[in-house]
Structures are given as structure tokens and as C-alpha cells.
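As a next step, we paired sequence with C-alpha cells, yielding the entry below.
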Amino acid sequence: METTYHQSGSHFVRLDAEVPTVIIENNQYTSGEDFREALSKTLDCFKENAAKYSKLGWLADTGNAEVFPEEDIKWVNEVLNPQMYAAGVRYIAFVLPKDVFAGMGVEEYSENTDPDAITIRNFDSKEDAKTWLSEVLA
């Protein structure tokens, strides 16, 4: 069951205690400060809940995403990723965007993330992403 942690006009941040995982889901295009706020709120949710679970996953549902600006991808790789790793993020599941160009941004992020630090898998559905996270977090 998912509970909402944070909501704005462009995104939702939820916790699924059954998997367990934090979920960020965009419901419209976002970039710049709004994009960074959404990811920062997701990291806050992760930090606040990490002690409750022996392992906690991160699910990024980017199904509705559009092209990610290069400066946002750079911010995630250079600023957010080290914070995520320090907080204990080890498994990320992406629901791939319908937009092929946005999917390229997800691919670029994955390629720039150390696979020995954070394991990333891409999926076509939220259900498949949750199934994988349930398996690796067990």
C-alpha cells in the first residue's frame, strides 16, 4: 500500500511499505528547481524511513517524463547521487518514459552511476519494477 509523503503540481513522493520502497512519480513535465525539489523530497522520504527497514528501494516512475535538460542530469550525477549513496540508496528501479528522448536521459544517468555503488534496472511498468525491488530487497 502506498502512502503519500509529498505532493506538488508536478510530482508525487510516496512510500510503499510492502516492498519497501520510496516512489517518485512525475505527473507532468518538470525541470530545474521543481525537478530538484522533487528528488530532494524523495531523498528526505528515504532518509526518514531507512531506519524502519533493513533495506529500502527507490522507484522512479518516469513514464510521463519528457526530455531531461542536461543541467538536471548533471545535478543528479554530481550532487544528488553522492547524497543518495550516503543515505543508503543501493537499488533504483526506473519505469521508463514513453518519450524516447526522455529515455535517453535515464540511460545517461544509468551509465554515469557506479554499478558497484547503486544497482539500477529499467522496467516498462511500475508492477515489474516493484517485483524486482521486492526480490533484491528480500
User: Anything to note?
Assistant: The chain has four helices and six strands. The radius of gyration is 13 Å.
